[in-house]
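#random but structural
TW: two for the price of one
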Amino acid sequence: MDRCSTNTKSLYAQLQISDPNKTKTAESSLLDKPGRKFSEFNAEEYSSSIQTKMAESSLLDKPWRKFPEFNAETANKLKEELVDYGPDSETGVTAANVLLIGQIGAGKSSFFNSVNSIFRGKITNKARSGSFEHSLTTVYRKYNVKDHNSGKTLKIRLCDTRGLEEEFTIDPQEISHILDGNVPDRYQFNPSAPFTTETFGFIRNPHLGDRIHCVAFVLDGSTIDVIPEKILKQMKAMQSRMNQRNIPQVVYLTKLDKVCPMVEEDAGHMFHSSAVRKAVDKIADVMGLPRGFVLPIKNYESETILDQNIDILILKALKQTADFADDYMEEQVEKMVAENGQGRKEKE
């Protein structure tokens, strides 16, 4: 059953203004284009365009992915799990490092701001974000998130790097240094001089805790079909280096409210939206990742107050990312133990 048709009728009904005062207000303020009054607006044409958009993003009766209930209990449970989270003591790592990578304007820095907002209990903007021609992120940052209620700092660090651009290709070796933990916090990026072993601050003997434990590609779900070829090539080159190191990867698929009007109305509709499901399937194929590794979210952008359903999507994505980071750290510890054992045998 398509529940979008009901919403279409509701929108059409809103155009039938019976109050003369309201009609007068509409004529003076709602202009389709300069010099055209609301009374001349083609309501039937408008309704038709709404119906088309709704048809492309119908709501399914059953969710296309199993997901926790959108309620206060789920939100509180996820927050508690993330506040209590910590890498296994055997790893010797104090916090999981999650690298955020994405094209400029996709919502990379906005994701950190959204996470920070949830745990601060209000909308914040610690990392510079917005839609600009070039990346606003010019410094490599390892952001910590502090829970306002408990006073605890989450043991997950969100590492923000430059946004991907067609004109300025990120040096592949620079990404390798970031993955391996050679790049210090607050390093100033310089497109004309990539980070090398000779760069001041280069960490020569990084520990497991300095490395990246999981990578999150932050991608704009509304522009999947028009991702520039140069950007795709950059991401594929990065993935190759990540795969060489067995670093897990996920996708945070953002701006899905632009793909489905019903998600714009309520983020809780995310897993009932056929348009969102199609976007997830498509980007999974593009990135060569399992569909379960593509995590649909909505960042805080136009909102001025927190929304429980937006919180749940972000918190669940972060929790799954932390789980993948744990898998990587566990694998690295096992690898080090095996190498140490082999080394002892060779000495004997």
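TW: number two ↓
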Amino acid sequence: PWQSQYALQQLRECAVKGMWLCLKNLHLVIAWAPVLEKEINALKPHANFRLWLTAEPHLKFPLVLLESSLKVTYESPPGVKKNLLRTYEAWSPQFIEKGHQPVRSQALFALAWFHAIIQERRNFIPQGWTKFYEFSNADLRSGADIIDRLCTSTGSIQWDFIHGLFENAVFGGRVDNNYDLEVLRAYLHQYFDRDVLGGKGRKKLAGILELPLSVNHKDFVKAITALPETDTPAMFNLPQNIDRSQQRSVAKSVLSQLVLVSRPNLEDEQFDKTRWTKDLSPFLQLWKRLNQGSDLVKLSPDQVPSPGEQDPPLLAFLLLERQVAIKLLQQVHADLSKISKVIRGTLLLTTDVKENATALLKHEVPSSWCRKWEGPAARYTGYGL
């Protein structure tokens, strides 16, 4: 494409002249990134030359290019208030005042509020959303453009058009879960409503904020600065105890990151009997104590009760779950027994044994065990259970 050729041309020219060059949104052309990497390696740049690359996280980003760069990570401060302030820093006073229509400026504020809510609601997964959706500034720009066009062409906003376009194209196009789509639809009907926008003395936005009947940029910024610094669950129409769930999720994430930082890289290490004996013996001894007096690991398939045709649905479900649990128990027992035998030198090391032992050394659940069991969270996440 001509864009890539132009980028390479600018790269060569800036490298020779000692100028600075910024290539933005590299994650959108990730297939072209190796070409850029080769071009950079072939350069003989001027001492003053600097190349800036911006990109969102991407699994296929070239590692060599990443490792050879000085990395700067920017994370926006959390919270609805900070989100709204960032939006109004990007929107100029001239853009807000355009057309001198209070209903338009109020609709833009409702859009900024809606965008902030659906973004910050991602902090409450899986109760807020069932998964992480990439609601971005591009969606915000598209929504603002739609509101601007509708106001310019008709003089008044057709709320049904807003609901349909935002739900089916701009924001809803990213949502692939029916439950999440219902939540999105409810927000649209709550915020973009003629009883909320268009005049003074009407309903408050989200039940907490009275919108200025103005086209002045400063009036809306003043309304934003009056908001609390900390988000409340009521802003998202979520229960008051949802903070506990969020705190557990944050704590779990922090602990996972600490484990990643503290553990060594074991992928390429060879079998180390001393290390395996020291680090895996607690797992093996604990498993041995847990199974004392239990015959579940010795049961054959015909000894495990199966549901009958006349059994009630609940009993049939419980029997099937018990079968799965016993199979998983026997799998764990067999894998730990193999690890124990490898440590004692009575069994040769295989790929499966090494993978399971490596996972345990990293304080992770082996993937072969995870595949044996799909818990309720994986099946019913769409309902927040």
